[in-house]
Design brief:
Number of strands: 13
CATH architecture of the largest domain: Orthogonal Bundle
CATH topology of the largest domain: Arc Repressor Mutant, subunit A
Largest sheet: 6 strands, mixed
Radius of gyration: 22 Å
Order of helices and strands: HEHEHHEHEHEHHHHHHHEEHHHEEEHEEE
Shape: globular
Structural class: alpha/beta
Strand order of the largest sheet: 8-9-10-11-13-12
Strand content: 15-25%
Distance between the termini: 26 Å
Length: 388
């Protein structure tokens, strides 16, 4: 197992809250992490049909059998348990009674909000970050290998070919989450929608155009995009809310939580092919944004990430906010060669945001990190400097 940066935070929260919930995309390593972090806990998987039926038919008796120090995996599949958990928690002052994990964020958090609000801490485990791979001595051979493979643990721990893995992953995701749990019936159209979303990585989202290209209604496109977000497949990066005297673009940009999945949907068949692909810059930008998000999630903090673009098409790829104000402004360049011109837009806009050169960054595709008179230049391995 590649050590996960979230393990310490998960353990700390179990000493602070009666229950802890770990959610995230399928196969991101949730079950492995909770079992490794809490080896003394009993493990109960609600994926097992017989176990699930027992939990749903008689939740009171089922929970009395597992009243403390227990992991319930895929907990959203037995929502009847949650109100009974509330009773057990409220009758005791014991911390760390339950560890809940699940892959369907919408269903899991709906159950929590109805029964366990204020009693449970929630963490999101995303696929492996570049930093975790480096720390686990699994550093990708090249940036293109990282973009092509992505961060799902199985792909980085075995010799499974990404094409084989993601074909199975998408089929499982559609059959389980989309068809069975979320009720989407037009599976072929949904798959086309998923692929069309991948072609729009890093672009300002035009929901009407996306709907037209997929031959679906705008309301359906919005609903399906929400499904992708609740299942940790894709997410929207919203524009920063202060205009600094400029007219701003107000639509969000679209990214995926894993570049390997996105590259597969785009039909990229190897790291070498990706290196020459027209999507390489977008995928690298995606990797930088989600790498920072992963590092914030690992310490249990919500990433406050935005982008900035005005009506003259001047854009800052990423703004990290702290206390309602910009903390860092970041430009992303996929080239491994640094050029000072990469700071041009930052030098035009960042002063109005109150950001001096020490808080202006260019993240590029090279290995070395260094300071310049314009700002700081970082490689992918040093993005932890932006997380504080």
């Amino acid at each position: 197992m590649i050590p996960r940066a979230m393990a310490d935070k998960l353990r700390d929260l179990a000493e602070t809250f009666p229950a802890v919930t770990l959610t995230g995309p399928r196969q991101s390593g949730k079950s492995t992490l909770v079992k490794e972090t809490f080896p003394q806990y009993r493990y109960v998987s609600l994926e097992d049909a017989d176990v699930r039926e027992a939990a749903r038919e008689d939740p009171h008796s089922f929970l009395s059998r597992y009243d403390s120090r227990v992991i319930f995996d895929e907990a959203q599949r037995a929502p009847e348990l949650f109100s009974y958990m509330q009773g057990v928690i409220d009758s005791s002052d014991e911390l760390g009674q339950y560890v809940l994990s699940g892959s369907q964020n919408f269903l899991l958090l709906k159950s929590i909000s109805q029964s366990l609000a204020g009693r449970v801490a929630v963490l999101h485990l995303l696929p492996l970050s570049y930093a975790e791979l480096v720390a686990g001595e699994k550093t990708p051979a090249t940036i293109d290998d990282f973009l092509f493979t992505g961060g799902y643990p199985q792909l980085n721990a075995t010799k499974t070919a990404p094409a084989d893995y993601f074909r199975s992953y998408v089929a499982t995701y559609v059959d389980r989450d989309v068809r069975e749990e979320l009720g989407v019936r037009r599976v072929a159209q949904f798959n086309a929608f998923l692929t069309m979303c991948a072609t729009r990585i890093g672009e300002v989202l035009n929901i009407e155009g996306l709907a037209n290209d997929c031959d679906i209604s705008v309301d359906t496109a919005r609903s399906w995009l929400s499904i992708l977000e609740s299942s940790f497949i894709a997410f929207r990066l919203h524009p920063f809310h202060k205009n600094y005297g400029k007219r701003l673009i107000k639509a969000p940009k679209l990214y995926f939580y894993d570049t390997g999945l996105a590259a597969n949907l785009l039909g990229v068949e190897s790291a070498e092919e990706l290196m020459l692909s027209r999507y390489r810059g977008s995928l690298y930008e995606n990797a930088v944004v989600v790498e920072i998000a992963k590092q914030y999630e690992a310490i249990g903090r919500e990433p406050k990430l935005f982008y900035w673009r005005d009506s003259n098409q001047k854009e800052i790829d990423l703004i990290i906010e702290k206390g309602g104000e910009p903390q860092y402004a970041i430009e992303v360049k996929s080239s491994a060669t640094y050029r000072s011109s990469a700071f041009k837009t930052l030098e035009d806009i960042a002063p109005a945001m109150g950001l001096d050169p020490q808080r202006r960054f260019v993240v590029y595709g090279g290995d070395e990190s260094f300071e310049t008179k314009h700002g700081q230049v970082l490689g992918l391995a040093d993005l932890n400097k932006l997380v504080s």
